[in-house]
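Take a record:
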Amino acid sequence: MYRMGKEEIQQLAKVIEAKDLFKVNSGLQQSHQVETKLQTILGTKHPIFMTSGHAALVSALVGMGIGPGDEVIVPAYTYIATAMAVVAAGAMPVIAEIDDTLTLSPEDVERKITKHTKAILPVHIQGFPCNMDAIMQIAKTHNLYVLEDACQADGGTYLGKRLGTIGDAGALSFNFYKIISCGEGGALLTDNRKIFENALIYQDSSAIAFFGNQMEGFSTEGFCGNEYRSNELCAAVMNVQLSRLDDILFDLRKNKNYLMENLKDVCEFIPSNDAKGDCGTTLAVRFESEEKARKFAEHESVQGLLPIDTGKHVYKHWTPIMEKRGACHPLMDPFKMEANKDIVPDYKQDMCPITLDKLSKVVYVGVDPDSTKAELDAKIEGIKAAMKTL
């Protein structure tokens, strides 16, 4: 989260004074406004504002009809919640390599497809756009769903289209560590009416049938689900945050481009599937060895981070997934379900060596949208000084 101030406080005060905190109301309707803004800003037909990006991923998978007996391909580099969403739907996460862009490798996706594959789940990690042309073509060829995890890429684009709106469905996150935030929150995005109806019922435990006319025109009957419905307090904050989104992205991109332009002679950057659509949150510098990467990252003027060190963003640290503990109750554990008995993956610590190699040779340097030119120039000089020590 980059910017927050009195405007958010004012919107929260209005909600508290109105005493309409529930999502469905006849008053301020902050949640409805959030979903309307998501439609307008992102260009999606059916957004659902909910409690988290993970909630959006699970709801989307359920909305697609994915469950036991199905496989979903996920990248080896993403937060554990991506893979856990697949398990929550009762399906099996199949872990694939990343490529030089640090996003899902289309080539490895092709290799991992089986007769049980039902969806591809690309992740726009750190705001880096995936190769969506290649992924969508693969999905079309094999008749697969595409669910975009854009939880770290709120508002980013790929060839002019917002991330999360290219596949059959997408997920955004609004927790504290994202580009815009309401503390915790998320959104499901889809143009597919069937996915929308299933997901709306699922994320609200069928309670939508009792509040307003949310099921007007539905062809889907209610079923048991989970409770991921958000509230007017979070929505009030998100309404302001959404109005800030494009200005934040503009400044992030401007500052990242300034850094890259002034460092291109001394640094090698990872390639991008769409540099203009990149969210601009992260400068990713590539090295020929982990030793050099670590020395650079540890320099006092850099204080960078190797993505290999980001814990549960790297598949080998997804302990519940790697150890196949998919639920508290064994009969609810997808790894132990009869329908999955022939497709339980043989996860190994070294099963994605390309991913581990690439993540150990890159250093992340954060970009601040509010940095002044003087601060950017100081960062540039510091990075140049660090490069000279290698």
In short: The mean pLDDT is 97. The chain has twelve helices and twelve strands.
